[in-house]
Amino acid sequence: MTKSLPQLALGLIISLLATPAGAQSTKSKDAEYGVRRLLADARLSDASYYGKAPLELTIDPATGDALFFLSEEAAIVRVGLSLDPTSRVLSDPLHGTGPNLAPADVVIEDANDALVADNDNRRILRIDLASGDRSVVSDNSTGTGPALSDPRSIAVDTTNASALVIDGTTLLAIDIATGQRSVVSSTATATIGTGPAIDYYSRLTHFVDASNGRVVVASGARLLAVDLSTGDRTEFSGPGRGAGPLPSGGFANSTYDYQRKRYLALGIGDDVVYAIDAATGDRTLMSGPGYTGPAFSNPTSIECDETTHSALVVDSNAGILAVDLMTGGRRLVQASPMVYVHEFALDDAHRRMLIPYSDRIESLELTARAASDVYRPKQRGSFFGSYALQDLAGGIAYAITGDGAATLDLATGGLTTRSGSGSTPTLTTAVFLDPASRTLYGASLPLPFSSDVPTLFSDAVDTGIRNLLASPSVGSGPVLAQPISGAVDTKRGRALLLDAGLKALLAIDLSPCSTGDTTCPVRMNISGGPVGTGIDWNTPADVRYDAATDKAIVADAVTLVWVDLVGGNRTPLSSTSRGSGAPLGQLNGLVIDAKRRRAIVRSGGTGFVAVDLSTGDRKTLAADPTAEGTYLFSPFGDLDYDPERRAIFAGDTVHPGRALFEVDELSGDWLVIAGRMP
To answer: Among 295, 277, 275, 297, which Cα is nearest to 285's?
Structure first.
């Protein structure tokens, strides 16, 4: 079947196509959409080859590339998802060997291969993700069972080593090793399973819910959950189940948001993304009119990209949009019109999309968030004081604010006061958490013109009970002067408290105190002044405990310092005389990226620098000139880092309205997740 589609002019891409086949790849920067790069190959000399409409899209998790089919050409194109986006054909008659293809959907099988539902040729193909070679997994002469007539949507059931395929109005299971076909659920020739029928235009969610033995199908006005053992079809979300708005034209496509345990679905004719609770089927608006970024025009396909915490949406008129999973804000990934794209796959490992067109698959490289793409959500709650950002359960952080202890929902920015007993000082300058005991610790400074004194207190996460641990009348040892940062020495069961006024690192015993013992807890100077050797403290601002080395790391002026917790000796980790790379400015924030063995510091102004913990070498992550959004004013050294989100979090007690910021590690852009914009 040949699909006749209009030629879609892409001025930037066509200008690149003048590069002769075999020449070096050409780069060009579009003023509106940023850098685009095409790899020269045998097809790039034909300007009519590009600008065709992609049909379906998928991500290859092994490479991170996108694979997509291109209309009017028998090709699969691979595009890598990196900072310098490239687009190339992955598989078509001139790329890869094997049968020609007319793909309708593509899904990642494993690190090396993708599976394609080829509806025109009535077969399931395997595509080698490195070479583009094609081989038959199942067709009407390969494997036995019900004949394939119109396979259009595909998912991989790894538990049962099979491919799930919607063929007409029937859900088939295809043994990947043998090509054997069997009916899972149908109301067509033979009734298997009960419940609402799968309509002809239904689309499988690529995620197979093995724990519940089901797969979700977008079928008209309903999302159906299909039981893989019985074939029963139940309304998972629709007119008869779940509260909330419904799409006027039914559901076009769906994906699964692993982190938030919800499905995301596109509404036909509504230009919105719905979030559907995986347990209740309740629907809420996740993105649509009124949200920041380019508007949807005709969204047709969606997949979750966990790496960037966004959902990628193919829009037949606008191109490819990334939707922030926390805010619903949108940014443009690819400006090309993408008519008739109903599916795609994400290659998370290599940061690319696999997009099926009518006769090929292309691989599309995903771009990092551009500096100009800044999400500015509406005002969110109130925020004052410092915080401890610890994602202990389901995207909930625990905070200590001027209003008391609170929980912070990272998705909505909502702050909820936690019940408990005890008082919380007004200006909390250092907050840190002991995950083992689920206890927050906070140090406070007195407000100007007040008679208060610096203190240290504990706050139990589960009970909200707060106790005073250090003040002139509680505990013994050096009197606190200007406590600004703390950490928990998990090996020795004590708090480490950095006091800029004393220019000392203190240790406070966290063992239970005996009733009536006013000398407990004991405070000790373990590094500073006469204690310990090495460089003297200048303006110490932040401390973290590194369990891997059993040392403390302190950000002090323009130097990162190792502190031996036994002798208190201070050794430069990174400074003008140790390590190479980006220079360090005045340091006022520090976190440890344990996975990559580096420290991330807030270095002068609002820039962030990553420091290798082995060599002291430095690399800029985000800098003032490139970052967008609202800058921080005074985070008091408190930062936190989430390696899964690739995000740095910073509190700001001076900024108008008080705020908690999320900072994109790659672009340096700011996002207010609690508080308000100026």
So the answer is: 275
What is the C-alpha to C-alpha distance for residues 271 and 265, in angstroms, rounded to an integer? 11
Return the pLDDT at 442: 81
Structural contact between residues 167 and 201, judged by C-beta atoms closer than 8 angstroms: no
d(CA 657, CA 659) in angstroms, rounded, equals: 6
pLDDT under 70 in the chain at which residues? 1-87, 189, 307, 336-340, 348-350, 366-420, 423-427, 447-450, 605-606, 622-638, 643-645, 650-662, 666-678
Q: How do 494-499 and 483-489 pair as beta strands? A: antiparallel
Condensed to tens digits (0 to 9), the pLDDT of residues 94-141 reads: 889 999 999 999 999 988 899 999 999 999 999 998 889 999 999 999
Half-sphere exposure of 633 (CA within 13 A, CB side): 11
Cα distances from 447 to residues 404, 425, 492, in angstroms, run: 16, 9, 33
Asked if residue 435 has a cis previous peptide bond (ω within 30° of 0), the answer is no
- Secondary structure in 3-state letters for 504-550: EEEEEECCCCCCCCCCCCEEEEEEECCECCECCCCCEEEEEEECCCC
- Whether the bond between 85 and the residue before it is cis, its omega within 30 degrees of 0, is no
| Adjacency order of strands within the sheet including 134-139 | 103-108, 113-118, 123-128, 134-139
CA 564 to each of CA 114, 534, 568: distance values in angstroms, whole numbers, following the listed order: 51, 11, 5
Quick count: other Cβ atoms within 10 Å of Cβ 88? Answer: 23
Residue 673 has φ and ψ, to the nearest 5°, of -105, -10
**Residue among 120, 101, 82 nearest 1 (CA):** 120
CA 173 and chain centroid, separation: 32
Q: Where is 14: in which H helix or E strand?
A: helix 11-16
Residue 582: its H or E element? none
- Does this model's pTM top 0.85? no
SS3 484: strand
The two structure tokens encoding residue 232:
């029963």
Residues 678 and 655 sit within 8 Å (Cβ to Cβ): yes
Q: For 13-47, what is each residue's pLDDT tens digit? A: 222 222 222 222 222 222 222 222 222 222 222 23
Distance CA(670)–CA(678), nearest Å, equals 13
Q: Cα–Cα distance between 137 and 105 in angstroms, integer? A: 15
Query: What residue type is 148 in one-letter code?
Result: L
Mapping DSSP to helix (H, G, I), strand (E, B) and coil, where does residue 20 land?
coil
- Residue 392 φ then ψ, to 5°: -80, -30
Cα–Cα distance measured from residue 646 to residue 333, given in angstroms and rounded to the nearest whole number: 19
Beta carbons within 8 Å of 379's beta carbon, 6+ residues apart: 657, 675, 676, 677
At 93 the three-state DSSP class reads coil
Which DSSP helix (H) or strand (E) runs through 310? strand 310-315
Q: Is 90:354 a contact under the CB 8 Å cutoff? A: yes
Nearest Cα to Cα of residue 438 among 492, 390, 373: 390
At which residue do the structure tokens 């235009």 appear?
201
Question: Contact 530/585 with Cβ under 8 angstroms?
Answer: no
Rounded distance, CA 481 to CA 124, Å? 71
Largest CA distance in the chain: 87
Contacts of 156 (CB under 8 A, 6+ apart): 107, 108, 109, 115, 162, 163, 164, 176, 206, 208
**Token digits of residue 79:** 């595009």
